[in-house]
Specification:
One of its GO terms (molecular function) is L-serine hydro-lyase (adding indole, L-tryptophan-forming) activity. With 450 residues, the chain is of the alpha/beta class. The chain folds into two domains: 245 residues, Rossmann fold; 170 residues, Rossmann fold, CATH 3.40.50.1100. The chain contains 19 helices and 15 strands. The protein binds pyridoxal-5'-phosphate (PLP). The site of pyridoxal-5'-phosphate has 19 residues, from helix 13.
């Protein structure tokens, strides 16, 4: 019988997170404060607890995972890896396709890999309450789950359109004990201002971040937590790629190509950064980040200092950005609609170490359906971007006759996104490429630095 599933023992779960900053050719560009100087740890302590700030600025290559965190992660980790024999056959490709499956967590995606340590460190630091934002609801549900594990109160500002369109994500957060508000609300300055300008404001991720940050900054027992973009989030996700390496080694494989979808960059960082250590040591491996054509941050955005939220409360980060006032088109991969991207990942793309590609919406759902019919698992619309790119690479192997080894991260399942699949089947989804003019205009709105 062909081997399909590659598993690890609990004892083989990584004991350390991998910090890519240690292997980057140039040191990571620092976040800047309003005065144009690098942000001090002290300034960050208004919204983050001490251990999180330390990890955000860490330089050392390996950072130990606390036992109490590993204990909770073993609820679903190590996560399985599969060889996509049926998909390979359906495509008629000589390529070997492997995927790491992160949909096995209780929240259904990779996000609890960071939510759990974030909740743990906040608890240890004496924090009572966490605030956060959520778009489609995946991060909100992950931090609600993690808050519950360690006895922290969690308040989630959920983008209003998603609050209305995804009631079950809200129920999930409430089941895990969180308080969920439709953002913009009338109990923060940022929310009030947005509602005064437009009472029907549908909300955006940037605005929800402004609300969550404001509440954390104005309450001493409250910290803010973010589900992607920041260095410590990318760090926590590297457990994915480290496990993947061990799993491939068990079947004597090493990838030629590593693929992940990219919203803020965390699951991509998770699967790809551990391979970057080998690449830095001279090994040949392509690292490929995939984003929607409708939110083309890495492929068409500006590499510049910009705010992480829409109001301008966060420090300035050097990253690819579509402008902090970017209003996302309503595509279905809600988790990929952020205006910026991880500064670490952005810098690696800028330096040519990581490749980035865009995919149109319809092609992602076509790939998702093809994958589900071959492999069984129904991918989240975000993950469909990685699937689509893996299929493109496998088809290229068919053309060239090369038997490359392809690894991609299947970041989550699509069980809460079946309405999007319905629309795809009904022919109601469209391709939408973000207009060039809007990208040009964003340049004039970028904050001036120095
Ligand atoms: C949130 C999410 C993403 C995008 O976030 P990243 O930080 O870029 O990983 C991708 N896939 C799934 C399933 C998600 O929930």
């Amino acid at each position: 019988m062909q081997q399909t599933k590659i598993l690890l023992e609990e004892s083989e779960m990584p004991t350390h997170w991998y910090n890519v900053a240690a292997d980057m050719p140039n040191p990571p560009a620092p976040p800047l404060g309003p005065d144009g100087n690098p942000v001090t740890p002290d300034a960050m302590s208004a919204i983050f607890c001490e251990p999180i700030i330390q990890q955000e600025m860490a330089q050392e290559r390996w950072i130990e995972i606390p036992d109490e965190v590993r204990q909770v992660l073993t609820m679903w980790r190590p996560s399985p890896m599969f060889r996509a024999h049926r998909l390979e056959k359906a495509l008629g490709t000589p390529a070997k396709i492997f995927y790491k499956y992160e949909g096995v967590s209780p929240a259904g995606s990779h996000k609890p890999n960071s939510a759990v340590p974030q909740a743990y460190y906040n608890k240890m630091a004496g924090v009572k309450k966490l605030t956060t934002e959520t778009g489609a609801g995946q991060w909100g549900s992950s931090i609600s789950l993690a808050g519950q594990m360690y006895g922290l109160d969690v308040t989630v500002y959920m983008v209003k359109v998603s609050y209305q369109q995804k009631p079950f994500r809200r129920s999930m957060m409430e089941t895990w004990g969180a308080k969920v508000y439709a953002s913009p609300t009338d109990h923060t300055q940022a929310g009030k201002a947005a509602l005064a300008a437009d009472p029907n404001n549908p909300g955006s991720l940037g605005l929800a971040i402004s609300e969550a940050v404001e509440v954390a900054a104005s309450n001493p027992d409250t910290c803010y937590s973010l589900g992607s973009v920041l260095n410590h989030v990318c760090l926590h996700q590297t457990i994915i790629g480290q496990e993947a390496k061990k799993q491939l080694a068990k079947v004597d494989e090493y990838p030629d190509i590593v693929i992940g979808c990219c919203g803020g960059g965390s699951n991509f960082a998770g699967v790809a950064f551990p391979f970057l250590a080998d690449k830095a040591a001279g090994k040949e491996v392509r690292l490929v980040a995939v984003e929607p054509d409708s939110c083309p941050t890495l492929t068409r955005g500006h590499y510049a200092y910009d705010f992480g939220d829409s109001v301008g409360m966060t420090p300035l980060m050097l990253m690819y950005t579509l402008g902090h006032d970017f209003m996302p088109p309503s595509i279905h991969a809600g988790g990929l609609r952020y205006h910026g991207d991880s500064p670490l990942l952005s810098q690696l793309v800028k330096e040519g170490i990581v490749e980035a590609h865009g995919i149109p919406q319809l092609a992602t759902f076509e790939a998702g359906v093809q994958f589900a019919r071959a492999e069984g698992i129904i991918p989240a619309p975000e993950s469909c971007h990685a699937v689509a790119r893996a299929i493109i690479e496998a088809n290229a192997c068919k053309e060239s006759g090369e038997a490359k080894t392809i690894l991609f991260n299947l970041s989550g399942h699509g069980h809460f996104d079946m309405a999007s699949y319905d629309k795809f089947f009904a022919g109601e989804l469209e391709n939408y490429a973000y207009p060039e003019q809007a990208i040009k205009d964003a340049l004039s709105h970028l904050p001036k630095v120095g």
